From TrEMBL:
Gene Ontology MF term list: ubiquitin protein ligase activity; zinc ion binding
Species in which this protein is naturally found: Podarcis muralis (Wall lizard)
Keyword Metal-binding set for record: yes
Annotated pathway: Protein modification; protein ubiquitination
CDD domains: PHD_UBR7, UBR-box_UBR7
Biased composition, class Polar residues, residue ranges: 270-282
Limits of the UBR-type domain: 55-127
Function: E3 ubiquitin-protein ligase which is a component of the N-end rule pathway. Recognizes and binds to proteins bearing specific N-terminal residues that are destabilizing according to the N-end rule, leading to their ubiquitination and subsequent degradation.
Any one GO cellular component localisation term in the record: cytoplasm
EC number per UniProt: 2.3.2.27
Keyword tags: Isopeptide bond, Metal-binding, Phosphoprotein, Transferase, Ubl conjugation, Ubl conjugation pathway, Zinc, Zinc-finger
Protein's name in the database: Putative E3 ubiquitin-protein ligase UBR7
UniProt-annotated stretches for the region Disordered: 1-30, 263-282
Length: 431
């Protein structure tokens, strides 16, 4: 959300009588609000970048589990082979080009300068393989999204709609094209699109859409966030997997406590990881379960629909990790679903924590290069400036008035003047 700071507030010549009326109509924000918004935007930027290095090409790291990615429409326009570039290459090699921001893709290696770029050599790492065969691409690399294959933002689409990323195929979808009305943004953590639900039907056993359990959360068998189904001809087609009603009730009571106990363990052991890829992989190696949870859930009655599904936080820890299920995930190319560190939330948390730790105070950098006398003098000057500026701005806050550019310029002019007077009065003696 964009906010506008108030203009200078000084009227044009002859407009003094209208100044009060205009000031009342102009949007005004306080300095504290501006600083708070700036800090929030900076925090969001750190989260989106996920700790990606803006100076070094990520190619040498191989297929990075998650990183900020871009596609260059200037170098690889529609009709050419799709390609993705890392954050550092977007700055150094494509700074003046038209780029598509892809947010994040999993297990991707930077393509910048390889054979897909006809007239460009990577400035950061010129020696690269011709192609990266393990990379996966979709229409996002040409700025097209969703089943409608439209750009975002779409100049021809006047319907306001939120774009949601599928955690399996990593494409972005309009909320109205998911076959179901999405829950409020705070009520779900991840989404799996309709096509990916068709490709991974085992997820329906975990979604468990039996209406009798619609209000029961993860303590029972209902792991997905329930939504209102959008009735369309395609969405009316359902596959109902039936079992005996008496068997369902008997088994449900038997596994409810087991799943609840496993949930408590998962809540303690499976918080989103912000560690390295190797550490995260170790965390996903779980003790083999004595029984297959998926087979137990599959014995229940559930409805398989043609729509997307929405999942709560930490739902991945509910997935069975027995040998048979892990083989099924690998065959479907979705073993990452068992890894909490694969989530976008873990990626964003890593970016926030890493960059907070790496941010250095410029004052401390300057101090480290000085001798002790210079350090004392600089700290003294800094404290004087900080104290006087705080006192100066407090007057505006107390009066509820807007700080204008002229006010800041006046402060520094007066501060420099006072500093010169203090320096002129100082006398130096030689011993």
């Amino acid at each position: 959300m964009e906010k506008e700071a108030a203009a200078s507030g000084a009227g044009l010549p002859g407009d003094e009588g209208e100044e009060g009326e205009r000031s009342a109509e102009e949007p005004v924000v306080s300095l504290a609000e501006v600083l708070a918004e700036s800090e929030e935007l900076e925090k969001e930027a750190r989260a989106v970048l996920g700790g990606s290095d803006h100076e070094r090409c990520s190619y040498s790291q191989g297929a990075v589990k998650r990183q900020a990615l871009y596609a260059c429409s200037t170098c690889t326009p529609p009709g050419e082979d799709p390609a993705g570039i890392c954050l550092a290459c977007s700055y150094e090699c494509h700074g003046t080009h038209k780029l598509f921001e892809l947010y994040t893709k999993r297990n991707f290696r930077c393509d910048c300068g390889n054979s897909k770029f006809k007239n460009l050599q990577c400035k950061l790492l010129p020696e690269k393989a011709m192609v990266n065969p393990a990379n996966k691409y979709n229409d996002n690399f040409f700025g097209l999204y969703c089943v409608c294959k439209r750009p975002y933002p779409d100049p021809d689409d006047e319907i306001p709609d939120e774009m949601i990323q599928c955690i399996v195929c990593e494409d972005w979808f309009h909320g109205r094209h998911l076959g179901a009305i999405p829950p409020d943004s705070g009520d779900f953590h991840e989404m799996v699109c309709q096509a990916c639900m068709d490709r991974c039907p085992f997820l329906w056993a975990y979604a468990f859409t039996d209406s009798r359990h619609a209000n029961i959360r993860c303590g029972c068998l209902s792991f997905a966030v329930h939504t209102v189904t959008k009735v369309t001809p395609a969405a009316e087609d359902q596959v109902v997997l039936n079992v005996e009603e008496t068997e369902e009730i008997k088994k449900e009571n038997g596994i409810d406590n087991q799943i609840k106990t496993e949930e408590e363990k998962a809540a303690h052991n499976n918080e989103p990881s912000t560690s390295s890829a190797s550490e995260c992989s170790e965390q996903t190696v779980k003790k083999e379960e004595s029984t297959c949870r998926f087979q137990e859930l599959k014995a229940k009655q559930y409805v398989q629909k043609n729509r997307a599904t929405f999942w709560p936080h930490n739902w991945r820890s509910k997935l069975c990790t027995c040998k048979e299920c892990m083989k099924m995930y690998c065959d479907l190319e979705v073993p990452f679903l068992t890894e909490e560190c694969d989530t976008v939330l873990a990626y964003e948390n890593k970016g926030t924590s890493d960059q907070e730790a790496d941010r250095r105070d410029p004052l401390m950098d300057t101090l480290s290069s000085m001798n002790r006398v210079q350090q004392v003098e600089l700290i003294s000057e800094y404290n004087d400036l900080k104290t006087e500026l705080t006192d100066y701005l407090r007057r505006f806050a107390n009066d509820g008035t807007v700080v204008k550019r002229e006010d800041i310029q006046q402060f520094f002019e007066e501060f420099q003047s006072r500093k010169r007077r203090r320096t002129d009065r100082m006398q130096y003696y030689c011993s």
